[in-house]
Amino acid sequence: MEQGRKYIQTTTHAIKLEQNCMRLGPFSPKHGRCVRREVGKYETVEKN
Fold first, then answer.
1. Could you give the 3-state DSSP secondary structure of residue 26?
2. How many CA atoms are closer than 13 Å to the CA of 8, on its beta-carbon side?
3. Percentages of the chain per state (helix, strand, coil), in multiples of 5
4. b/e burial code for range 7-36 (CB count within 10 A of at least 16 → b)
5. Cβ(6)–Cβ(45) below 8 Å
6. Distance from the CA of 48 to the CA of which of 6, 10, 29, 34 falls in 20 to 30 A?
7. Residue 24: pLDDT band with limits 50, 70, 90
8. What does the alpha-carbon distance between residue 36 and residue 48 come to, in Å, rounded to a whole number?
9. What domain range is 39 assigned to?
């Protein structure tokens, strides 16, 4: 099993992701760790 799978999400998804991160904090059970990479792009690292 891979640890720390990375998903790049852009545009609408990134906006939703940003809102979730702001609401739930940098470490949320649903999205794992939210890291801002650049404008309009976010990377989520899900921990298994």
1. coil
2. 5
3. 25, 45, 30
4. eebeeeebeebeebbeeeeeeeeebbebee
5. yes
6. 10
7. low
8. 21
9. 5-46
pLDDT, averaged across the chain: 53
CA–CA dist 10, 8 (Å, integer): 7
Residue 3 near residue 48 (C-beta atoms within 8 A) = yes
Spatial distance between the Cα atoms of 28 and 1, rounded to a whole number of angstroms: 21
More confident call, 42 vs 18 = 18
Strands (E), 1-48: 5-10, 27-28, 32-38, 41-46
Structure tokens at 14: 């990134």
User: For the chain, what is the domain count?
Assistant: 1
